[in-house]
Design a protein that fits this description.
The chain is an alpha+beta fold and 83 residues long. 42% of the residues lie in helices and 27% in strands. It has one domain: Arc Repressor Mutant, subunit A (Orthogonal Bundle), CATH 1.10.10. Strands 2-3-4 form a three-stranded antiparallel β-sheet. The chain has a two-stranded antiparallel ribbon with strand order 1-5. Helix 1 crosses helix 2 and helix 2 crosses helix 3. The chain starts with a strand and ends with a strand.
Length: 83
Amino acid sequence: MVVASYDDALVRDGEMLALVGSEVVLLSELASALVSYARSGASVASLADSLVADFGAPPEADPIALVSDLVRELLDHGVLRAA
């Protein structure tokens, strides 16, 4: 389970600028949606389900694997934290 973890954010046209400590991270529309879904905590599987519902299934790829990769990147930047 992961939860959103940033100090402040600005959302515009679906993208998010997230302030994490002294670092500013620009998130794509997909990453912004994922962070939004994780505000109260979410599993990778539930995040994948929500993203597929909103953006459609990726062609010939496993949504859970792709979301897992994105979650790892967001954890590395401090935008998400393990719960």
